[in-house]
Amino acid sequence: MKVLFVCSRNKWRSLTAEKIFSGYEGLDVRSAGTEEAARIKITGGHVGWADVIFAMEKKHVRRMKEKFQEMLPGKQVICLDIPDDYKFMDEELIEILKGRVSEYLEIDL
């Protein structure tokens, strides 16, 4: 399964998610950001590639819908409601990500 994690700048939340979930068998994981200054900026290629897209906040879902509206039908887009309060690989962020993502993906944590 191809999983894309999206946040604003692709520096803390989505990059942490990519790092922790890329080790799971059966998951091909990437991450991107919605802002101009993102480390890796989301493209139509990312959206087309992904089976499931996890956005950290509602604004990320909105930005994707504005930019890639024609590509999103049929895609599973899930908002995790994780605020921009965490640094890269923050222990609390890792626990939240594992808990919320495991509700949607069949993985053994």
Considering the chains and any ligands shown, give keywords for the structure:
109 residues; globular; 4 strands; Rossmann fold; alpha/beta
Task: Outline the secondary-structure elements.
Layout: E1 2-7, H1 13-21, E2 28-33, H2 44-49, E3 52-55, H3 58-68, E4 76-79, H4 91-101
Parallel strand pairs: 1-2, 1-3, 3-4
Describe the structure.
This is Low molecular weight protein tyrosine phosphatase family protein. It comes from Paenibacillus solisilvae. The mean pLDDT is 95. This protein has one domain: Response regulator (Rossmann fold). The protein has 109 residues and is α/β, with parallel strands linked by helices. The chain has four helices and four strands; from the N terminus they run βαβαβαβα. Strand 3, helix 3 and strand 4 form a beta-alpha-beta unit. The longest helix is centred in the middle third of the chain and has 11 residues. Strands 2-1-3-4 form a four-stranded parallel sheet.
User: What is the CATH architecture term?
Assistant: 3-Layer(aba) Sandwich
Strand content: 15-25%
Alpha carbon gyration radius: 13 Å
Helical residues, percent: 25-40%
Q: Give the structural class.
A: alpha/beta
CATH fold description: Rossmann fold
Total helices: the number is 4
Lateral strand order in the biggest sheet? 2-1-3-4
Let me know the CATH homologous superfamily.
Response regulator
H/E element string?
EHEHEHEH
Anisotropy-based shape: globular
Q: Class, according to the CATH hierarchy?
A: Alpha Beta
Number of domains: 1
Distance between the termini: 16 Å
The residue-averaged pLDDT reads: 95
Low-confidence residue ranges = none
Number of β-strand runs? 4
Mind summarizing the main beta sheet?
4 strands, parallel
Organism: Paenibacillus solisilvae
Protein name: Low molecular weight protein tyrosine phosphatase family protein
Domain Phosphotyrosine protein phosphatase I: 1-107
